[in-house]
Please model this.
Amino acid sequence: MIEIAKALSLNAKLIIFDEPTAALTETETAALFRVIRDLKKRNVAIIYISHRLEEIFDIADRVTVLKDGAGQGTFSVAEITTDDLITRMVGRGLSLHRRSDHTAATQDAVMLEVRHLSDHNLEKEVKTVLRDISFSVRAGEILALAGLCGAGRTELALSIFGARPRETGEILVSGKKVEIRSPGDAIAAGLAYLPEDRKDSGSKRPK
Model:
């Protein structure tokens, strides 16, 4: 928010926002959009870059689609749909199948189970990030990890994938205990990880 405020302080006639909401909360995003709408009323030209399509339809007048560095056309937001944008972005239509409800798949097989995962032995007086975490995920189920920044969500994912050491805990895949001490072990067990920083972390070869 401070960096955005610095850019606004220049009284520029054209402002380029490159994924400004990536690190903002919903409340901060709403505040930013109010600022952008005020700038628009003051005849400031704005280029807004985003992967979040709902933001495009919320604040943009026109949208230009890029695919592999090539322009796919410029369209009025009022005359294009989300499906049209996706088709032009990926080069083909996508059919998204959503469950009609959010009922957990309680009858399906457990694909992943984590038991009592911790950074360090809980009997030791050592500062930890992860403390006695247990959960399971069934086939066809989506489990969300929620928490504030620094709560340990990414650290938990890295620990399960073997990219971060852990002291205690068991991991079971399809009901069988597996030893995951590296990303290579995780991949061999059938796990995949899409990192938060895909440009940097996603390009590293697992060991």
User: Anything to note?
Assistant: The domain at 110-203 is CATH 3.40.50.300 (Rossmann fold). Residues 26-41 form the longest helix (16 residues). The CA atoms of residues 20 and 26 lie 12 Å apart.
